[in-house]
Amino acid sequence: MKIKHNTWVLVLVILSLIPLVLAYINNGNSEYSNCYADIDSGEMICDDNSGNECVSGNDCSGDEICINGMCRAGESECVNYQGYGCSVDGNAWNDNGGGTCVSSNYGNCVYANVINMDCDENGKPTCEIGIDTANVVCQLPDTGKSCFSNSGGNFVQDGTCVAWGATNGCDTSGHVAKGLTLHQAACVSGLECDSSVLGGDYLRDGYCEGSQCILCKSNEVGYCDDGLDNDCDDLIDNGDNDCDGVKPHPIYR
To answer: 54-84, pLDDT tens digit by residue?
Structure first.
């Protein structure tokens, strides 16, 4: 008696499902836990990475590392998971003893270091892990970018990168001031500023008056000679709102 072609296909599909059943029995801890059988060809199709669930790098095999709770092919995979927590050892990926994925060195799981993230590159004000570019340390030309002062687990902004005035270049308190091109932790009269180190990359909303960051405002005539850019239009004194005619010419800084 001849066996029909469709019967053979069904047999092959059933056989291909056996590893999946075993993986389920083993609670997903199998090299087949991220595989499936193609219903037409009967072939087993697997992710390039094993996809095993993990808590730390020790739960993965060979050169694999644990990223965001899943085993991935190697540390270079961090390029595809920038800002996500990772582990290459016994520390949990989501603990401050673990690491954070960056694009530096073609993908790296960075432990105990400052991470910067270009949170404005996609036109959104807040940081998006897995989307925005993350790199290790705050250094030129990274001033003004968002930063995570101590890597370990998923990137969480707690500061802004500055050229000077903060430990390891990540300013985690108060405001951020900016001169012509560089950012710094402390205000000095004549500089512009962002009143908060949080909320994404540097975004001006004030001007420096001495050591204070004052929110932008329409000026009153009484302040038209204070030498400050009170309305944040890059013009000093006569360029401020409500100061027209007080001085004959605007002063550019």
So the answer is: 999 999 999 999 999 999 999 999 999 999 9
Per DSSP (E only), the strands in 172-244 are: 176-178, 183-184, 192-194, 206-209, 212-215, 235-236
If asked whether residues 15 and 39 sit together in one domain, one would say yes
Full-model pTM? 0.72
Establish if 98 belongs to a structural domain. yes
At 9-51, the pLDDT tens digits run 565 556 555 554 444 444 443 333 444 444 444 444 444 444 5
Domain ranges, residue 14: 5-46
**Strand partners of residue 193:** 177, 206
Number of domains within the chain: 2
In a domain, 153, yes or no: no
136 domain-assigned:
no
What DSSP letter does each residue of 37-77 carry, written as one string? E-TTT--EEE-SS---B-SBGGGS-TT-EEETTEEES-GGG
Does residue 38 belong to any structural domain of this protein? yes
106 and 61 co-located in one domain:
yes
Q: Which residue has the tokens 């603990």?
A: 95
* DSSP conformational letter for 14: H
Map residue 117 onto helix, strand or coil.
Answer: strand
CB 239 within 8 A of CB 229: yes
Instruction: Give the integer Cα–Cα distance in Å for 204 and 215.
Output: 9
C-alpha closest to that of 193 among 164, 216, 217 = 216
